[in-house]
Write a structure and sequence with these properties.
This protein has 5 helices and 8 strands; from the N terminus they run ααββββββαααββ. By secondary structure, it is α+β, with helices and mostly antiparallel strands. The protein folds into 2 domains: 106 residues, OB fold (Dihydrolipoamide Acetyltransferase, E2P); 64 residues, no CATH class. A hairpin with a 6-residue loop joins strand 1 and strand 2.
Length: 198
């Protein structure tokens, strides 16, 4: 009888574990309104809904344009997939605008930053890293015969948030683009994007 109780207890524990659909970081990014990494500034309880409200200070952005300080609700609050957010800890956050509020969830990809290494390759550099990279590329444009074209191409890249084409060529589903003048950088854009070279 005791063995049966342990087996049933084991079944109950197993069913209570969080089971999320197996989405890739790219699929999670496509479904998200915002993707960013940030530090938890505050965890509070909403007086009306009794849901936890997690306030983040945004450090770097990978999709969308969230405010520097943003409040989110955990979609799974009170359930087995809820995230145990702690003040001062950093997270990679996938957030969606739903039902008049910005929400997040473990099953939408949100996790502690130290657990997010697998997402890094799919997300690429964030806005802060890109801004530093563009500044370096700008310096490389200066003092050249074709400076004007080089700077124009950098402006187009920055506007779209694109990066120069890697040595191995553009990734799958992307094509090269550049300005129609000598000295232009070449960068990769989605195959469906409007191009400078058209």
């Amino acid at each position: 009888m005791r063995a049966l109780g342990l087996i049933l207890l084991g079944v109950k524990v197993a069913s209570a574990e969080c089971q999320c659909p197996p989405f890739t970081p790219k699929e999670l990014t496509e479904q998200a309104t915002y993707v960013f990494n940030g530090e938890v500034w505050d965890v509070a309880i909403d007086g009306k809904t009794r849901q936890r409200v997690i306030t983040f200070d945004v450090n770097d952005t990978f999709k969308g344009d969230p405010k520097p300080r943003i409040e989110l609700k955990d979609e799974a609050d009170g359930k087995e997939c809820a995230i145990d957010f702690h003040e001062g800890e950093s997270y990679l956050v996938y957030a969606r605008w739903q039902w008049g509020a910005t929400r997040t969830s473990r099953c939408w990809g949100t996790k502690r930053l130290q657990e997010a290494y697998g997402d890094a390759a799919a997300l690429g550099p964030g806005d802060a890293a890109k801004a530093k990279y563009y500044d370096k590329l700008r310096i490389l444009c200066l003092g050249r015969r074709d400076t004007a074209c080089c700077l124009a191409s950098l402006k187009a890249m920055r506007r779209g948030g694109y990066l120069p084409r890697p040595d191995g060529g553009c990734p799958e589903d992307m094509i090269p683009d550049q300005m129609r003048c000598g000295g232009s950088y070449v960068w990769c854009v989605p195959a469906t994007a409007e191009r400078q070279t058209r």
